[in-house]
């Protein structure tokens, strides 16, 4: 059970980090990589925000157990 909680924590943190990158790219704050199709596209900012929330819930549930 401890391994599953650890794995959930890692996956949740990775989801948060990836979501923040998507928000940064979607809002035009992070312009990396330069040829990315996600730059300044609000759709990716919204998807990133949703991923951050989902990752936060996963981390919260992993810590709670």
3D shape: elongated
Tell me, rounded to a whole number, the average pLDDT.
Answer: 96
**Largest sheet: number of strands, sense, barrel closure:** none
Task: Classify the beta-strand content into a percent band.
Answer: under 5%
Alpha-beta classification: mainly alpha
End-to-end C-alpha gap = 9 Å
The tally of structural domains comes to: 1
The helix-strand sequence is: HH
Low-confidence stretches: none
| Tally of alpha and pi helices | 2
How much helix, percentage-wise, in residues? over 70%
Transmembrane segments: 42-62
Keywords: Membrane, Transmembrane, Transmembrane helix
Q: Could you explain how this protein is built, in words?
A:
Keywords: Membrane, Transmembrane, Transmembrane helix. The chain crosses the membrane at residues 42-62. The chain has 65 residues and is an all-alpha fold. The chain has helices spanning 2-27, 42-64. It has one domain. It is built from two helices and no strands. The mean pLDDT is 96.
């Amino acid at each position: 059970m401890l391994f599953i909680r650890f794995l959930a924590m890692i996956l949740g943190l990775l989801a948060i980090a990836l979501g923040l990158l998507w928000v940064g790219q979607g809002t035009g704050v992070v312009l990396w990589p330069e040829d990315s199709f996600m730059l300044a596209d609000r759709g990716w900012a919204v998807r990133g925000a949703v991923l951050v929330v989902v990752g936060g819930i996963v981390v919260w549930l992993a810590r709670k157990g």
